[in-house]
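General statements about sequence and structure are easier to judge against a single worked case. When preparing material for the folding task, we compiled for one chain both its residues and its backbone structure tokens. The amino acid sequence and the backbone structure tokens for this protein are reproduced below:
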Amino acid sequence: MSVEDPKKNAKRLVLLVWVMVAFFYFYISYDYIRIEMHNDQFGDYLRTVVQLAGSERRSPREIRSLLLAKADELRIPLTGQEIKIGGAGSPDLRVALEYNVEVDVPILPRGFYAKHFEHKAVYRQPR
């Protein structure tokens, strides 16, 4: 009859705990980096839309629909009420928006951390 070393079982348990901690760390890090990259892409898109909409004198409805479509593509939880558009159809076009994105955790149904983002863009006439 063989008797297993209790230290060997403890080492296996510690290794298992560290593997789980590493998994959670990398999963959360990946999700956080993904959120930051999507936010950067959305900020660039916002500036492009404001420049084009300002030069083409687009309506607030068109600007809002373009921004919501891109937010949906990037899985950004943005609603139409979070987009503030001022001076549409004139050279004073301004767009401001803000939203929160939750960082996911594999076991929890809701994220444990929400990141807040704000963007502001102003139309600048070409010289």
Remarks:
- Residues 15 and 21 are 10 Å apart (CA to CA).
- The first strand starts at residue 83 and ends at 86.
- DSSP finds two helices and three strands in the chain.
- The helical segments are 6-56, 60-73.
